[in-house]
Amino acid sequence: MDLGLKNKVAFIAASSDGLGKAVAMELANEGATIIINGRNKTKLENTRNDIEQAYNTKVLAISGDLANSEEREGVIKTIFSHYSTIDILVTNTGGPPSGKFEDLSMDDWNNTYKLLLASTVSLIKAILPGMKDQHWGRIIAITSQAVKQPVDNLILSNSVRASVAGLMKTLASELGEHNITVNNVMPGYTKTNRLLSLIESNPSFKSAIDEIPLKRFGNPEEFAAAVTFLASERASYITGTSLAVDGGWIKHIL
Q1: Are strands 59-63 and 33-38 parallel, antiparallel or unpaired?
Q2: Cα separation of 108 and 96, whole Å?
Q3: Which terminus of the chain, N or C, has fewer Cβ atoms within 10 Å?
Q4: Contacts of 11 (CB under 8 A, 6+ apart)
Q5: Which class would CATH give 9-242?
Q6: Is 10 helix (H, G, I), strand (E, B) or coil?
Q7: What is the DSSP letter of 11?
Q8: Which pLDDT score, from 0 to 100, does residue 148 have?
Q9: Strand runs labelled E in 132-249
Q10: Cα separation of 4 and 54, whole Å?
Q11: Helical H runs in 30-154?
Q12: Alpha-carbon span 44 to 91, nearest angstrom
């Protein structure tokens, strides 16, 4: 199946590792032009090398913390110094700290807002005008299964990621007339460093596999395939959806 992604320019946030890296790899595999981002310069360079060697392509790697407004503006400036328009925007971040409500400070809440919501809003604001000018675009947020069904001990993620989902649903209505689709993808328990750290700090997460109908954790590549399809021409009539890639963990009917 030709997904129609050849030479489309894609920016994938927080893509030096984990789910973001998997998405960048899959989009590169489909012929897209890739821009990656991350805070750790060593990991970022390693990821760039991995993609370039695997797919014989050039990758733009921009270091910077998207939760920091100054660094975020620097990342955006660098993007537009190389490309006039971004066709595909995949917003993504690391996860906020785990903990129960009374364990967390107001700084934790403010930092989570900057990490999850402010970074997403700022990237969309910067990249949207070019999408509207060309009457084509894909905006995809990576959030969490916690958007539909809260996860114990992750109140920060449960709360603020739901705001991102609300943003994406509203934007889908506003931007449809411009041929821009806006979707949210909700990873479940997937084999990343984030999951391993949660299991290490919260032993109860080890039993999470028993709650998944497929009785296993997901692979990043499986998640990336779903994101890549939503970025494609083949998904041109899908917008405003929240797609779970969770092995059936979410129990809601809708």
Answers
A1: parallel
A2: 8
A3: C
A4: 35, 37, 79, 86, 88, 89, 90, 123, 127
A5: alpha beta
A6: strand
A7: E
A8: 92
A9: 137-142, 180-187, 242-245
A10: 20
A11: 41-55, 69-82, 106-112, 119-134
A12: 16
CB-CB neighbours of 214 under 10 Å: 12
**Which residues in the chain come in under a pLDDT of 50?**
none
Helix axes 18-29, 41-55, angle to 10 degrees: 20
H helices present in 56-118, as ranges: 69-82, 106-112
Give the domain ranges of the chain.
9-242
Handedness of CA 217, 203, 165, 14 (dihedral sign): negative
Long-range contacts, 100-103 (Cβ 8 Å, 24+) = 100/153, 100/155, 101/155
Of all helices (H) and strands (E), which one includes residue 159? Answer: helix 155-175
SS3 category, 153: coil
Spatial contact of 245 and 188, defined as CB atoms under 8 Å apart = yes
Give the Cα separation of 40 and 46 in Å (integer).
Answer: 10
Q: CA nearest 244: which of 174, 165, 173?
A: 165
Residue 207 tokens read as 């039993």
Contact 148, 244 (CB under 8 A): yes
Amino acid at 75: V
In the block, which residue shows the tokens 């973001």?
A: 20
pLDDT at residue 253 in the model: 82
Q: What is the pTM of this model?
A: 0.94
In the chain, count H helices and then E strands.
8, 7
Distance CA 4, CA 15 (A): 22
